[in-house]
Amino acid sequence: MRPLVLAVLAFVFGYAGGHWKAIPPNRPTTAISPAASTSSFLHSPTPSKPLNSATPAAQAHDDNPASSLRSIFLARNPLETAPRAVAAIEALTAEDFRKMAADPGSFPAPYVNGVNQVAGELLADALVLRWFAVDATGAATGIAKLEEALKKSHLVGAGTLLKALARTKPELRLDDVLAKKAIERFDMSVPLAFASLAKRDLAAAHRYAEQLTDLQERRDAEGAIGQGIAELDPLAGVRLARTLGNSGIFESALTSAERGGEEKLREVLTENAGKFPVGLKLTELVLRHPDLDWQHLAPEEGQAVRGIPPQAIEEAARLSPAERDRRLVRLDSLSAPLRANVAQALIGAWAVEDPNSAAEWALAHTDASDPAAVAASPARIAFYSWLNSDPGPAIARLSSLPSSPLKELLANNAAASLAAAGQVEQAQALLQPGADASSSAALASITARRAEADPSAAAQWLASVPPTADTTKAVGALLEKWLGADPAKAADWVEAQPSGPRREAALKAYTRAAADLDPSIAGECCKLITDSGARSELAEFVFRKMSRQDPPAARAWLRSIAGIDAGTQERLIQSPQ
Length: 577
Hints:
Elements: H1 3-20, H2 34-42, H3 56-59, H4 65-73, H5 78-90, H6 94-102, H7 117-134, H8 139-152, H9 160-168, H10 170-180, H11 189-200, H12 202-210, H13 215-232, H14 234-244, H15 247-259, H16 262-272, H17 281-288, H18 294-297, H19 301-304, H20 310-317, H21 321-329, H22 336-353, H23 355-364, H24 371-376, H25 379-389, H26 391-400, H27 405-420, H28 424-430, H29 437-453, H30 455-463, H31 472-485, H32 487-496, H33 501-517, H34 519-527, H35 532-549, H36 551-560, H37 566-574
């Protein structure tokens, strides 16, 4: 076993193993040294014999190393398969690399996205190091040819080895770029090479950057060098980021700071002073470091952060019940938008295991009468999980709630889900028709299901919905089904609608749905729309459909539409169809 490959694998897998586990309270996250990592790495699930005395099966040379490596790389838990990965890579010969490179479609490129990104990058680095170890003079050329073939064929793994080359041998990557005198716009291996070299030899990185003649390329290179500086010294990195106005350097400083421990993370965020937003990663950081003063470290951040990234849900799922409860207790210390995001991540993960308890917690901690609180409530996530896992008790609990904006939201969400699953009667019983988005979605889901069986009956049912409810989406769902089954009756129904919002919705939906079936009929319907903005938008849509069948007729029709200015008409007529 070559010490270099094992050390690299042990370091990254050691960090990943610690990073993937919940961080105990009040314990800083520290980077694991290669020596310590090797110890824990070797005590993870391993073969019965030491790695450097592999079993005969591992020692025997595989006739199809590409296939063997792919099976290892695609394993669900890279920590468990790490010893096999190391042994398989170390067994590769120059002839193996030549054969694998000759068949780009079968080349075993590691997966470098998602939660296993660090592990994937490590394996790619190990492959490159091994390739150079067994073929020092031909590896660079072989990698370049293989990458070109992967890119041209749009195959998975394109760019992976170039990035690994940039991390492990940045001078070679930069020499190649300078020799070509051009940097491809989306080639992420180049900034990675500058960052990697900056960590080893800052002066050399600057010398390479000075050779770039394009000013923007040089600025990009200096930014990448700054990211390398930030990885080594997060505080220096964030100061440089503020000086250059470079958010990428700040992101590198933030990542490196967290690896250095909670105190280092606090220092970097304090130095940043809100200059650069943390972004979607903020929810993850709060979950991992609940004791930091996020009100001061990211004071305005929550206002701009909406949405829960998958990484935050995964982070919440790793917490023990006690760790989850401790974070729930501290929610009030966060700004309202950030509190909502953290709560949704925690309750969403909790609901997977115990949706009943998660839902009850969310109900108890939501002001059911406050629309703003209802909109941010994690109760939606909890009830969705509860409805899917045990619908009877979930529906009973919903029905028992007193009338409130929260009940309306939860009931309509449940109605939409039940209707989509074919349980229309239960959905209708829960429906709370209104002008809000949840009611609109539920009405559309119920109408679509009813229209599959009987569009006329669905239309009659929709007519019974209170006039204050927003039926725009429901009408669209109805006509989409009805036009395919009986277009004449669908048209009669639209024409029979009395003047008002529902007739407008019907005309708009019919125009859009009929444009694919018969653009000329859609065109006549479009003329009846009174909303000038909607009529103009749909006129463009119909015109493009009509132009595919009869361009002269389409142009004549467009000029006949009232309320569309001549400039817009000519722009559409002159535009390529």
